[in-house]
Amino acid sequence: MILPIVAYGDPVLRKVAKEIDADYPNLKELIANMKETMYNASGVGLAAPQIGKDIRLFVIDASPFAEDDDLSEEDRAALKDFNRVFINAEIIEEEGEEWAFNEGCLSIPDVRQDVYRQPKVTFTYQDEDFNTHTETLEGLAARVFQHEYDHIEGILFTDKLSSLKKRLIKKKLDNISKGKIRADYRMRFPNLKKGK
After folding, report:
1. What gap in Å lies between CA 36 and CA 163, rounded to an integer?
2. C-alpha Rg value of the chain to the nearest Å
3. Which keywords describe this protein according to UniProt (predicted)?
């Protein structure tokens, strides 16, 4: 089932999400719905807060990036099979010199900005069967992970922009929170009054 994606301005996007265990109700169905929602919106990642749930869960399928000829051979190879579910992820370490990449977010349609992140991230997480893994990602795969991880920490990519860039996009962000935006997928807007 395709779920509405929560728009910028909704308080759930600012919460630090809670850990879950294997008893979380209808988890397999929720994961399937999140993947369907992500694919419907042509996204490469979707975190539970983006569908209104403040839990430490996100899905990534970055394989569409693997066809981008502008990427390095290493990035394309790393992204080709990067399709996973992350539960209760915790970053252990981020390393390297920050680099810029143009990011967007399904909760913030039509806003894209260069965001600086470190190129290497080591983290633990549980898969959908609650097996625990420790892993290190680099390059674009690390960035996609970091972007989705930020969502479960209550952080949006716009928080990482300079104060000047934040001022330049403020009106756009205000319009998104008021529902004054058209997206090619279902959205839920926090500041829409009933009956309007």
Report:
1. 35
2. 16
3. Hydrolase, Iron, Metal-binding, Protein biosynthesis
Q: Which amino acid is at 67?
A: E
Under DSSP, the state recorded for 11 is G
Whole-Å CA distances, 96 to 86, 108, 120, 143: 23, 28, 6, 12
The per-residue pLDDT for range 18-46, each reduced to its tens digit, is 999 999 999 999 999 999 999 999 999 99
The architecture of the domain spanning 5-188 is: Alpha-Beta Complex (3.90)
Instruction: Copy the structure tokens of residue 188.
Output: 């839920």
Average pLDDT over residues 66-75: 83
* Alpha helices for the chain (secondary structure H): 27-40, 73-80, 139-152, 163-177
> Is 148 designated active site?
yes
Beta carbons of 114 and 102 less than 8 angstroms apart: yes
From CA 126, how far away is CA 128, in angstroms rounded? 7
- Choice among 29, 67, 95, 148 that is catalytic: 148
Tokens of 159: 């928080």
* d(C-alpha 168, C-alpha 81), whole Å: 37
Q: Does the annotation flag 88 for ligand binding?
A: no
The domain segmentation of the chain, as residue ranges, is 5-188
Give the residue among 8, 3, 2, 4 at the shortest CA–CA distance from 107.
8
The response to whether 133 counts as a known ligand-binding position is no
